[in-house]
Amino acid sequence: MIQKFGSIENLYEKVDNGESELKGKQKENIENNRDLAFLSKTLGTINLEVPIEDTLENFKIEEWDRPKVLELFKELKFNRYIERFNLQEEKTKTEIKDIFEIKDKTKDEIIETIKKQQEMFFYIETISDSNPEKIVKESIQGISIFDVKDKQASYLRLETEEEIKTFKEVFEEKNIKKVSINLSKIYILLKQLEINLQGLEYDISIASYILNPTNNKLQIEDLIEQYLELNTKDYVGEETQKQMNLFDVMRK
Question: How does DSSP assign 39-59, residue by residue?
């Protein structure tokens, strides 16, 4: 009808004057939907009077602000795009040795330090265990302890329940603040050994979730890479990561 009458305005002028030759339902629809017809024209019309301060010169393609784009992509977890557009940063100069040193200590020395400082920063190393009686199908294999004051990390293999239970006193002391990751799992693992973990102070996995609830990668390796900008694979290797811990590698 636009082609026939030239414009909506002309169409309705003909309708109002009885010159449209429209009849029946078609004419009724045209008359009843006048407002919609003019609204549709308004919405479909490109406004050529919009004030535009920019010129074509402003829209020329320029080099990206690469650091800013990288920061945004990292925030949005666009890891594939970081690689696709070659936005990787130079490898960080930070080394694990700059964060802490490895110190070989006996169980007694470690326990004495924990009691003295009244805090326990630790990580439990586990292996799979298919024992059907266990709630968590894992067994404790070792423990890493971090001395915040002296920035020293120590690792002990705990191959028997007796060795694990040497830490029972500090695990159960509620006045010793416990800081670790996945404390709920650790609680159950120790409970299976009749050790009642108390003094829970800070769970890294919960903190990570609070910072970013959409992040479902709460493994310690992922958090190390995200917040410390260190890739554990650079030290342990992808193939040997499950068989060898960081302490063994760094001693070599």
Answer: HHHHHHS--TT------GGGG
Q: How far apart are CA 152 and CA 145, in angstroms?
A: 8
Instruction: Dump the DSSP string for 139-186.
Output: EEEEEEEEETTTTEEEEEE--SHHHHGGGHHHHH-TTSEEEES-HHHH
Q: What is the CA radius of gyration of the chain?
A: 34
The amino acid sitting at 226 is Q
Using one digit for the tens of pLDDT, what is the confidence trace for 97-119? 777 888 889 999 999 999 999 99
Is CATH 3.30.420.10 correct for 97-251?
yes
> For residues 139 and 154, what is the distance between their CA atoms, to the nearest angstrom?
20
Query: What residue type is assigned to position 130 of the chain?
Result: S
**Distance in angstroms (rounded) separating the CA atoms of residues 33 and 12:** 11
Residues of the chain with pLDDT under 50: 239-244, 246-252
User: What residue segments make up the domains of the chain, in order of their start?
Assistant: 2-44, 97-251
